[in-house]
Amino acid sequence: MQRPCMSQLPATLVAALLHLRRLDLCANHDLIIGTRLTALSSLRELSLVSYDVVVKPGATLPPSLTKIYLSNALCLPPPVAALPNLRHLLLEEMEEGVLGQLSLLAGCLEHLELRRCYSLPPAEAPGALTRLQSFHLWDPPRPFDFWHLPPDETSITGADVAAVLAALPPSLTALTLTLGDIGDDALAILAPIAALSWLQRLRLAGDLPHSLALPPESGWWAGLRILALPASVAAADAAALTAGALQLEALILFGFCGSEVPHSSVVLQAAERLPRLRHMCVESLKSLDSRGKHPDRECFVHLLSQLARDRALFQPCSKRDSLVLACL
Known about the structure:
By secondary structure, the protein is α/β, with parallel strands linked by helices. It is about 25% helix and about 25% strand. The radius of gyration is 23 Å and the shape is elongated.
């Protein structure tokens, strides 16, 4: 099978792509980058999906690139570190060696996403990214997920995540953590999150303990503008939420169950006391019953109408699988 190579593309085709802004390249084997790719001077986004990316001598990537998606590669292609305008890097299913090279992007990278990677970057790598504004960690490995290896060789623990969080630079304003089933080990991530006093957006999801409660110290809550987390965690954090998150403008709740009236009431009453809240989204409600009705939604709207009977805080907008509320 012939390996795909950009240098094999006809010159007429390359000329026709000079104004291309996004390019996706995928190969079952090595993906070979030739010199003609450099000619795409308008390119902003590049996706490289291959077991390995081979760069021919003299080949570079267009300096106009601002976003790169890299999947399954064995190493970070050398030209990536030389891109002066690279701001967003998304890595999926990458090995530890690639993640250890992130410090090469210290001077430019602002947004980093790691999806289903086989390990976490060394703690010093995120700390070297002094311009990093957002860090998103999605679905790290769970025990036995990869090659049926023992859990101590495959799973990422709460302590591992905590070490990375503790090294994040003060430039960070957005954090997403979607964690696997790490059980009570999730408690290890709480202190590093509370230390991120400059955080404006936080998304916390995954198989987290229902009793998980974020630290009550008001310092880190004060800057939050957008908060997404399980409804059970929001209920446990209701007092700290209303006392500290006075700048919160949007609240997203996962796994909300309207039939649990005391649990729901705590969350809704906390939301009512947030002075700047403008958007509220409830996701993962239960499915419709045999009559085609949504019992959780009906209960939720009933609770909401009770809370808002004195002043119309929210205007509900119904959906089949979610309920979105926006302040008037």
